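Appendix B. One record, verbatim.
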Amino acid sequence: MIIRSPLPDLEIPDVALCDFVMTRFSELGDKPAIVDGPSGRTLTFADLGRGIEAMAAGLAARGFVRGDVFAICAPNVPEYAIAFLAVNRLGGIVTTMNPLYTRDEIAHQLKETGARFLLTVGPLAEACVAASRGTGVQEVFSLGEAAGTLPLSALMAGGPAPSVRIDPAKDLAALPYSSGTSGVPKGVMLTHRNIVAQLLQAENLLSGDVQEETVIAVLPFFHIYGMVLILLRGLRRGFTLVSMARFDFVQFLECVQKYRVTYAPLVPPIVLGLAKHPAVESYDLSSLRQIGSGAAPLGAEVEAACAKRVGCSVMQGYGMTEFAGASITNLEGPDHNRVGSVGLVWPNMEARIVDVETGKDVGPNERGELWMRGPNVMQGYFKKPEATADMLLPDGWLRTGDVAYVDDDGYFFIVDRVKELIKHNGYQVAPAELEALLLRHPAIADAAVIPSPDEETGEVPKAFVVLRAPLTPEAVMAFVAEHVAPYKKVRRVAIVESIPKSPSGKILRRVLIDQERAAVRPT
């Protein structure tokens, strides 16, 4: 059974992403586009327009052409928007990186994507410069002065930039990384059309007045949620974005109060904080009209508690990097927002619930894997044809790896995961990546990693290790911490005699997950 949106389909324009996002820039002029929340430093829409054209001209002068890759490894700073859209202006591809990545992780992505240039910030410059050695990166640019880099201002050639013919349906605009249903992170190929379709869908579902909406941009721009549904959507709609380079809960509350934020797109751990943290009582959050929650499941009780305490609506949505953002959300108004549900299918999208064992469609209120199809679905994984074939079927259906059901009214509920990813603070952590790292330790003979439930962060990585020499759990955690970004750290360790495996040798993570859930289930 194919489930479609209750709303009519939209006509997706054949337009380049940069042109689509910048439609209102000239008329908005001196209206603040992005404000750095802690400092108050502001870029207007006119500033962005000039900066984008100047940087595009500078890149073109350095030989950057259509199809080239430009990497960004930076926190949420106002110039992120200039770099992203300047690259797109030339038909280039932006690959984004978590600023918490280690040198090895940065180097891997630079090598795989063949990035020609890299933009970072001063505190990350040393790591980025070191990581770029031995890759195709020709120059590293930084906001401000930093050893081994050129200041971003050196790219601002003035313009005008050359005109470039872009094929929106075929040319890639962004190459963010995702772990998909399992395995190590892979580049997700998103065309201009994929992202334009997503922005148009969001524009017709998620309201907000162009003159009044002020959005807190605390979720990272390297992540698809922050990139498309906050940064690009906000600029397209003419909102004022209040950015934060790092998350601090009290500073977040201060920014909401100071800038009279009206819309807060968040992840479940922050929503939980709004529901329970005592600091909330010390701030005036009355300007908030709505809170959005995505990137991980949000419990119905937390959703209701946050809405009651803050005094605004809380709306869940469901998305993936592989479909350029979201494809299911609740709609505005009490008649359309079903607590505990991720909502209704977006326009132009189709959904199915498929039995995991048989591959056949199931009926309403029956559980199965969620499949989706539509114009915002990725083209595939970069240089990973086998991984693409595992997830993206020839007829366009994307296997999400999430177990869901749809009720009689068309509302979707995410209840479990077929896939093995761990969702920690909204970030994806691939068990296979951590297992491979653990096996590099000479004292570890075998290892398995699973999600362990955690009230504050959703899930944390837990390692089950078989030892060949004495090693403490603390030493195991310290070893992993040396080699991965902080959100990937193993937070819990169990020393075991053996790892459950199938006859073919595949780790039976589901056995360990079921044991873990049984151990933490209230009696």
